[in-house]
């Protein structure tokens, strides 16, 4: 088993200048290793630091201290200290982040949203749209909605588009927040199947979930957080 | 009213004072050194109002010498009122011989036409220019047009030609078609018809342009390239008189005037009066040669 | 390809613009910590000072800030619409490599503007000539690049209009008769006509209806993916920044107060002003 991510002594706090410099601790001395091909489940109550941890890995949050050593194809990179351009490069090369809610861009059809990552990579537009159709079909999104605007969809429909977009271009590392929330049991299974299929292709997944069913069927190993500290 | 006496006994040769003459000559030399470039000059007061040919007159009077032979035409005619007035003025102020014969003249001043008869290397052609700035129609500010000339930024001019083509199917400019001189400056050749434009190119004579009201001089020295602005697929062409010979001579290769006779009939007659006279007397004046005229011959 | 820090397209060093007569203390007495652009001693106005950043090929950089922050000033200086006070700008394209392009001759600047840069203004009247047709406006750029064949010009202009979803039938119509959104799209066509490596977008959706904004922004994203143009997007609207940019500079009182990945700036702002800005999104 090859390690993909080595997190050492990771700390993250927020200083709210608008609140006269009030400091909020989010993560305290977090240490763990993720191996290639693993599916890790991050669990914990609201505010326990799960999202903060994922965002620190994705570099949306700037960590205060510690290391996040990522085994990229070109060598090991510490995501905490890497500069912006390295991060942009690594994200493009294969770190995907799928947040809990779809951020909707108005006037872009569901198909186009899902095809985005492929278009960005330079795929032919027709091929990208075809692939998007296949995934949306698998996820059970009715064809009638394919040329609709996601801003008008239900939570469950949006979630399916969100997941589809995150997996259409299989990344090396997938960070996914609540992939099965607001989905009916049938679709839940489909999403779990898709994520397991990704794992077979070599994707490593870190997944936040409250749902025991999902955790049981998807995840190799769980990491539990309480108030920013790992409790296992 | 100016008393004849004063001027018959106390006048400077060619009316303009010597210092100003020198200034105009200097500016003309600069203009010749930079073909097509507009040189500002003093444009001194004349006993003729602005807009009546003062610019051309300035040039003539600055360069004329006692042995010159002077001809002046207005829209091709030696006999128009303005041509006669200016001829008399120059003659009185200099005592030079004047002529109607294009071939005999050494200095020819013109308003809005080039002679049909070919100009030689012993002749200077002086134009009266109303608007020296070819870009004025697309840019009304002088500081901007100067910058455009300085940086050879003529895009706006080209776009206006493109727009004419789009709107009308052809470039609609008639008189005063803009030209590119020596591959650098775009110049306003004064409102001569398209017919005359090719005769500026590679001419043996010196062409001097004077705009008195706007206070600019410019020049095209001999054997200089002068090209009308054209696109690769929308080309310059001269006026088309196909099928219309001159009513008086039957000649087909000259620029024609449209005239209404007293009986109400309309006829076309050669515009250049001296050329017309020579043709009527069966003389053989040598015409300019250019490939637009040559094409006519082949098609005729 | 792996990021190469020597591979920048544009490098801005110490760019400063001051109106009036500054003295030695002017820059030190203005800025976000004083909440002021105006020098208390000389009344000189510091529009921007000590601006340093790099732009890499294909990158989309956002510059966000409120009125008076200096964001538009930077872009105006880079596009030669305005004179600088001090500083260097290096452009990594021949024949300007190693030269401060702010000091180049007017002819060179004109050549850079024609071939290497495109600009889309907030007000279409600044970028378009309303006396020319939409095709004529695009033709201006093509002619400046040496195209003198009307047929080819019209074909290229038509393609560009098609790309920006302006009906090609309107090639010979005057922009004055277009809606605001369409005028912007004609401006975009004109700006990319010569395939420049660098495009400036200065508040391009401000003032447009919301639905039109969305369309224009999406068009810009598509073009960026397709053509790989590096862009500098100036906006006071954080949602525009979020949608278009990879990295962002946050400006206040003429200085850069924070810069970083756009998602980091929006979700984990460090500087007090950035936090204030982000928390003020309706």
Summarize this entry quickly.
By secondary structure, chain B is α/β, with parallel strands linked by helices.
Structure write-up:
The complex is a heterotrimer of chains A (232), B (300) and C (282). In chain A, 36% of the residues lie in helices and 29% in strands. Chain A is built from seven helices and ten strands. Chain A has helices at residues 50-58, 84-94, 110-121, 125-138, 155-167, 185-201, 212-218; strands spanning 3-16, 22-35, 39-43, 65-72, 75-78, 95-98, 173-177, 204-208, 221-226, 229-230. In chain A, strands 6-7-8-3-9-10 form a six-stranded mixed sheet, sandwiched between helices. In chain A, strands 2-1-4-5 form a four-stranded antiparallel sheet, covered by helices on one side. In chain A, β7 (173-177), α6 (185-201) and β8 form a beta-alpha-beta unit. The two termini of chain A are 21 Å apart. Chain B is an alpha/beta fold and 300 residues long. Chain B has a domain at 2-135 and 164-228: 3-Layer(aba) Sandwich (Rossmann fold). In chain B, strands 1-9-8-5-4-2-3 form a seven-stranded mixed sheet. Chain C is of the alpha/beta class and 282 residues long. Chain C has a single domain (10-279), classed as P-loop containing nucleotide triphosphate hydrolases (Rossmann fold). Helices cover 35% and strands 22% of the residues of chain C. Chain C has ten helices and nine strands. Chain C has helices spanning 71-78, 106-115, 124-127, 134-144, 150-163, 180-192, 210-227, 238-244, 262-267, 272-279; strands spanning 10-19, 45-55, 60-65, 86-91, 117-120, 198-202, 230-235, 247-252, 255-261. In chain C, β6, α7 (210-227) and β7 form a beta-alpha-beta unit. The termini of chain C are far apart. The model of chain C has no long low-confidence stretch (mean pLDDT 92). Chains in contact: A-C, B-C. The A-C interface holds A 14-18, 55, 59-62, 74, 83-89, 105-108, 119-120, 122 and C 2-3, 5, 56, 59, 210-211, 214-215, 217-218, 225, 243, 246-247, 260-261, 263-264, 267-268, 270-272, 275-276, 279.
Low-confidence stretches of chain A: none
Quote the CATH topology of chain C: Rossmann fold
What's the alpha carbon Rg of chain A, rounded to whole Å?
18 Å
Strand content of chain C: 15-25%
Strand order of the largest sheet of chain A: 6-7-8-3-9-10
What is the radius of gyration of chain C? 19 Å
Q: Got a strand count of chain A?
A: 10
Oligomer: heterotrimer
Overall pLDDT confidence of chain C: 92
């Amino acid at each position: 088993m090859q390690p993909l991510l080595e997190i050492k002594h990771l700390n993250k706090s927020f200083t709210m200048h608008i609140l006269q410099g009030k400091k909020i601790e989010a993560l305290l001395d977090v240490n763990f290793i993720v191996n290639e091909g693993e599916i890790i489940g991050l669990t914990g109550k609201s505010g326990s630091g799960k999202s903060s941890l994922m965002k620190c890995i994705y570099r949306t949050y700037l960590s205060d201290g510690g290391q996040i050593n990522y085994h990229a194809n070109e060598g090991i990179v510490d995501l905490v200290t890497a500069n912006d351009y390295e991060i942009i490069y690594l994200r493009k090369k294969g770190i995907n982040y799928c947040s809990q809610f779809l951020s909707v861009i108005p006037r872009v059809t569901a198909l186009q949203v899902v095809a985005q990552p492929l278009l960005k990579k330079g795929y032919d537009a027709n091929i990208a749209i075809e692939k998007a159709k296949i995934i949306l079909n698998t996820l059970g999104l009715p064809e009638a909605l394919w040329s609709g605007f996601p801003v008008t969809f239900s939570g469950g429909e949006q979630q399916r588009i969100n997941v589809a977009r995150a997996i259409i271009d299989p990344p090396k590392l997938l960070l996914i927040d609540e992939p099965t929330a607001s989905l009916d049991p049938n679709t839940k299974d489909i999403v779990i199947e898709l994520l397991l299929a990704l794992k077979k292709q070599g994707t490593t997944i870190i997944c936040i979930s409250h749902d025991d069913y999902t955790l049981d069927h998807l995840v190799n190993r769980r990491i539990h957080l309480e108030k920013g500290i790992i409790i296992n | 009213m100016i008393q004849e006496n004063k001027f018959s006994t106390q006048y400077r040769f060619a009316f303009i004072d010597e210092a100003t003459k020198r200034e105009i000559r200097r500016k003309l030399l600069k203009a010749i050194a930079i073909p097509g470039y507009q040189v500002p000059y003093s444009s001194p007061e004349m006993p003729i109002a602005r807009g009546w040919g003062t610019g051309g007159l300035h040039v003539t009077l600055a360069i004329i010498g006692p042995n010159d032979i002077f001809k002046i035409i207005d829209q091709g005619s030696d006999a128009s009122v303005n041509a006669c007035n200016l001829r008399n003025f120059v003659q009185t102020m200099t005592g030079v011989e004047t002529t109607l014969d294009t071939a005999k003249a050494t200095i020819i001043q013109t308003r809005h036409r080039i002679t049909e008869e070919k100009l030689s290397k012993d002749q200077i052609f002086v134009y009266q220019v109303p608007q020296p700035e070819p870009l004025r129609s697309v840019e009304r500010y002088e500081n901007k047009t100067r910058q455009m000339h300085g940086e050879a930024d003529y895009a706006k001019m080209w776009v206006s030609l493109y727009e004419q083509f789009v709107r009308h199917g052809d470039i609609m400019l008639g008189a005063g078609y803009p030209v590119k001189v020596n591959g650098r400056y775009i110049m306003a050749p004064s409102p001569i018809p398209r017919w005359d434009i090719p005769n500026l190119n590679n001419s043996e004579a010196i062409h001097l342009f004077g705009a008195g009201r706007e206070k600019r001089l410019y020049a095209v020295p001999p054997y200089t390239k002068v090209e009308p602005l054209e696109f690769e697929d929308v080309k310059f062409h001269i006026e088309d008189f196909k099928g219309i010979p001159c009513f008086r001579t039957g000649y087909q290769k000259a620029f024609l005037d449209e005239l209404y006779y007293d009986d109400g009939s309309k006829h076309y007659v050669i515009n250049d009066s001296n050329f017309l006279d020579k043709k009527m007397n069966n003389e053989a004046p040598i015409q300019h040669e250019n490939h637009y005229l040559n094409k006519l011959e082949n098609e005729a | 390809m792996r990021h190469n820090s020597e591979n920048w397209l544009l490098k801005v060093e110490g760019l400063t613009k001051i109106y009036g007569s500054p003295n030695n203390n002017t820059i030190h007495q203005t800025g976000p910590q004083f909440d002021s652009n105006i020098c208390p001693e000389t009344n000189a106005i510091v529009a921007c000072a000590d601006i340093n950043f790099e732009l890499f090929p294909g990158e989309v950089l956002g510059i966000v800030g409120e009125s008076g922050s200096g964001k538009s000033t930077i872009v105006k200086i880079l596009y030669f619409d305005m004179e600088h006070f001090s500083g260097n700008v290096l452009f990594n394209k021949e024949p300007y490599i190693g030269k401060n392009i702010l000091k180049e001759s007017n002819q060179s600047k004109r050549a850079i503007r024609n071939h290497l840069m495109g600009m889309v203004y907030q007000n279409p009247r600044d970028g378009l000539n309303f006396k020319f047709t939409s095709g004529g406006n695009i033709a201006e750029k093509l002619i400046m690049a040496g195209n003198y064949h009307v047929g080819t010009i019209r074909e290229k202009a038509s393609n560009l209009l098609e790309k920006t979803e302006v009906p090609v039938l309107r090639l010979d119509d005057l922009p004055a008769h277009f809606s605001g959104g369409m005028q912007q799209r004609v401006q975009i066509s004109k700006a990319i006509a010569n395939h420049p490596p660098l495009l400036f977008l200065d508040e391009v959706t401000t003032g447009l209806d919301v639905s039109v904004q969305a369309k224009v922004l999406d068009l810009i994203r598509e073009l960026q993916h397709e053509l790989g143009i590096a862009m500098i997007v100036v906006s006071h609207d954080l949602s525009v920044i979020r949608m278009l940019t990879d990295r962002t500079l946050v400006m206040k009182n003429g200085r850069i107060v924070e810069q970083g990945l756009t998602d980091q700036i929006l979700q984990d702002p460090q500087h007090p002003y950035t936090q204030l800005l982000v928390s003020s999104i309706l």
